[in-house]
Design goal:
two-stranded antiparallel ribbon
């Protein structure tokens, strides 16, 4: 049950605009990876530029 609540409250994908080869984030914006496990495994990051 706790894993279902955590999955519902956190995002699994993100779209960020890129301007001049840099992430177009606001002044107070940042990107974080929040892992819910005690022993996280390897992760893949997939970037789609279209």
């Amino acid at each position: 049950m706790p894993s279902h609540i955590k999955a519902a409250l956190t995002a699994t994908s993100l779209s960020i605009p890129i301007v001049d080869s840099r992430l177009a984030l606001g002044t107070w914006q940042d990107v974080f990876l929040w892992e819910h496990r005690d022993h996280p495994g390897p992760r893949r990051v997939i970037v789609h530029i279209g």
